[in-house]
Design brief:
Blueprint: E1 10-15, H1 25-34, E2 38-39, E3 49-53, H2 57-66, E4 69-71, H3 73-77
Parallel strand pairs: 1-2, 1-3, 3-4
InterPro entries: BRCT_dom, BRCT_dom_sf, Microcephalin-like
Pfam families: PTCB-BRCT
Protein name: BRCT domain-containing protein
């Protein structure tokens, strides 16, 4: 089966451990890049998806306000 290519995705990644001491964004950034997505270091108007888990409330609010798709780490893994 052909792997899924995320060529039209520009993602901003905000993924932390449940106690918010470990930033896991790098691992998901690499996975997204390997699947053909672009990853933005900043949340800007190019961003189409926010990969979010235990992230910053400001990131969540901005995604809600701008209508950007908020997705979980499970979306990346699937």
């Amino acid at each position: 089966m052909e792997p899924i290519r995320l060529v039209h995705v520009v993602a901003y990644v905000d993924v932390w451990s449940s106690n918010r001491t470990e930033n896991y964004s790098k691992a998901f950034t690499k996975q997204l890049l390997d699947m053909g997505a672009k990853v933005s270091k900043t949340f800007n108007k190019e961003v189409t998806h926010v990969v979010f888990k235990e992230g910053h409330v400001g990131t969540w609010n901005k995604a809600q306000k701008t209508g950007v798709k908020l997705v979980s780490v499970l979306w990346v893994e699937k």
